[in-house]
Amino acid sequence: MNHPNQTDLERIRQTERRRALVRKALTYMALALWALMVLFPFYWMLLTSVKSYGSYNAERIPALFTLSPTLENYKAAFTAVPLGRYLLNTLVFTVLTTAIMAAVSILAAYAFARLEFKGKNLVFLLFLSLMMIPNELVVITNFATITGLDLRNTFAGLILPSVTSVFYIYLLKENFEQVPDELYKAARVDGTSDFKYLWKVLIPICRPTIVTIIILKIIECWNSYVWPRLVTDNPDLFLVSNGIQEIRENGFGRENIPAMMAAVVVISVPLIVLFLVFRKKIMEGVSRGGMKG
Questions:
Q1: Is the dihedral of CA 209, 214, 215, 221 positive or negative?
Q2: What pTM did the predictor assign?
């Protein structure tokens, strides 16, 4: 029986290394192309925001760079329309909604994960069934409720329908249940209350998932459009998403694209910074999903 000699083995290894290098090169090329496709709109938005109105309109073929950038569009974004007020409204709405949502979700998830009460499984099943209801139906119900409570054009009307999330509660419940029962039993033997156990044990262990949920909720609130547009027609309560439409209709006009892009850049920067600062936490929370004992 013939066996490959040393030369044949070395040739096979070189062939495999070449194939591995080719595969890696093709992978990096595909990733680079995908990254270019994803990042190009952001580059185009930033580039357009530093072009003057005249130079932008004078371009027959859109230029991929500019030799005379200007910040006049950013000045106009804060002077032609109350963009600062829109940002402040959105910040208040986002902070309050996210804080209340986090508290509600953590407490509800703990109740379903650790507490025993009659009909718990049935209640949780009915709770999960809410995920099957289309958002459009929920919006209609919420609008009727908020209108009936005379909360239109108020921050309470903006915030209340967004303080619960079935998915986040379900995700946290699954994380809490993955923490060993022995920790809970030992804590109860020592006389630890449920709230103290939640605060001292579960929240620290499940912090990556909680941070991820909070960040996702912040992004959701910052980009919220349909509900704020529906429940508010007072410009003093407009969020940035509604403010963009107001800017387009009554601010710069539909033709001043560079000024519009400057406003969009200002609105997008907080979310980009948030992701860059907490990207490791987001990836950790998404990849782990929870801590197993």
A1: positive
A2: 0.80
